[in-house]
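User: Please predict the structure of the protein below. I'd like the answer in structure-token form so I can feed it into my own downstream comparison script.

Assistant: Understood. Taking the following sequence of 319 residues as input:
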Amino acid sequence: MPMSRNVRILISIAVLALAIGAHAQDKYPSKPITIVVGFGAGGSSDLFARFVADYARKTRGASIVVENRLGLAGGIAMERVAKAAPDGYTVATGSISSLWLLPQMQQMNYDPLRDLDYLGKMFTQPLPLYVRAESPFKTYADVLAYARANPGKLRWGTSGSRGVGEILMESGFQYAKVDTITVPYKAGVEANIALLGGHIDAVAGTDFGPLLQAGKIRLLVETGPLKIPGHESVPTFKDLQYPLSVEVFYGIVAPANLPADVPKWWDALLSEMVKTKEYAELCDKIFLLPSYSDGASFKRMVVSGYPEFGKALASQPAK
């Protein structure tokens, strides 16, 4: 029996509704996203990732889970995301350590120029050398004088073995021709606990903000080229004309070959987020320097800066 016109219309409507429903269900993000953080809970990367997750939930209804994967100064987290499915549901906080430093110092299971996509550069951050407020070291010159008079006695901590803090500070001490002892910890929080407990003399790291605001530490020198806001009297490695002095940057990365809607979603989210009062307050709290750029600009920065950073590393004397 021929199908009536009304039945054909009803079937067409049902098929269209199913197609629309399927499309809506597949619209990104349709399930929880994981942000992999290569550093410990309470550190700058962790606090930033949790801020992003909270903002996405409040403004988009999106579910974002923060997963801490410590090790290799962010390298373990980067290996995890580089091998994940390229669907936008596994991303990571990437930094100068995992994107520029580690791949040029040792064999890693990812290539930052080939295996990753870039969703947005979020901020840079000071990475100073600091001591307890009651330390006898009042200036960086005091530290160098002590190290020269007592070779191998000065003990200073970092937030991870062979991370950017360790590399930059070792480079500075080598240039100053002093012999010190590096003590790497699994996280910046652990290094700070050791410092406050008197187990080490200083820390080179980014997780100094809350301690500084509480008056528990003193900043002595900034390894990067930029002045620390509110602490412009602290010298920088650039001021001292040290050969290796770079900005410590952070951003969000993902596996390469993402669907086109994923970068668009993240760009809309992040570009909106960095304009909020809450983001400015977070930056003030942990001494972040806002410097947002979209994924395409972030990728260009990483790709163009990678070989230059490699040349600077190669010019450093062997440890």
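That's the full token string. The radius of gyration is 23 Å.
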